[in-house]
Amino acid sequence: MRRFFTALAAVMSLSLTNCGYNAIQSNDEQVKSSWSEVVNQYQRRADLVPNLVNSVKGFAQQEKDVLLGVTNARAKVGSIQATPEVLNDPAAFQKFQQAQGELTNALSRLLVVTENYPQLKSDALFHDLMSQLEGTENRITVARNRYIKAVQEYNVGIRTFPNNLTALAFGYREKPNFTVDNEKEISTAPKVDFGPSPTPAPQPAK
Questions:
Q1: Dist. CA 24–CA 119, nearest whole Å
Q2: pTM of structure
């Protein structure tokens, strides 16, 4: 009897392999792993926002609308639960990427404003925060690219015969991906030019 069940398990394993089940499982796990990294990097950016806003506020309190825009965009991002279940809900995924795009745009507007404040640009804390933000934006780009490739491989896999029959039988569906418009947003990540600060005018001798 034990031999029978061992043989049956071997046949079932071989059958699942031939029908693409194992490949689908592997691709699905890769998508989830890539998504987790995307979320982590976006969270890293969101964590930088409060300190960045406070730093700018110290030199540019009059820029209330821009500062409020960044704060509200960050709050919207924080209100979205970016769990793996989002990958099975195109509407929820679109909501996530739209919120992240709004934060990207809000940060871009904020950094445009900072160009008018040379003292802010030369502030050590602000400079450090901007370096962290730029590094995070680069990590976001890398993480998104990995996610995009993982989803493409997964989606192609479940549409290919005989994997498509297996996907249908086990309830695997295509997963949403970042849109072209959203890719344009991420390709213009917020940047700030740390050019040389104006040379202060010489003080008259006392």
A1: 55
A2: 0.80
